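Re: beginner question about structure tokens

> Can someone show what the tokenized structure looks like for a real chain? I only ever see the sequence side.

Sure, here's an example I had lying around. Input first:
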Amino acid sequence: MEEKKKGFFGEFKEFIMRGNVLDMAIGVIIATAFGAITNSLINNILMPIIGLLFGGIDLSKWDIVLKAAETDAAGEVVKEAVVLGIGTFLTAIINFILIAFVVFLIVKAMNKVNDMRKKEEEEEEEAPPEPSAEEKLLTEIRDLLKDKK
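And the corresponding structure tokens:
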């Protein structure tokens, strides 16, 4: 029975140490950090500006109440309100647009780098190789023999 555990954990270790799994884990970590930056940009910079443009409204708290909360005689909430979170939805849309724009810029930059690399490779292929020292010497000897004739 220990062989099964050892085999299972050995397979798991082999799986987890593959390069593509590690690359994926790194991608997830970077994406999480990028998401935090994007959320901060939206919530702390863009939304206050947009709210100011709409008359000082805090868009993250902009809701449409479909049914008000029910309270008892003591003022305690018995039933929560039914609310459409329009501000939260708008924040998610702006977040998506910003992330899509940044990904577009990254892909565009990568494509430009790849195009430059391909162009350099094509130029290297088109240019004839530099003759070796031996070939240069033989060419000089040939030219000298032509001149003597």
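Each token stands for a local structural state, so reading them left to right follows the chain. The longest strand covers residues 64-67.
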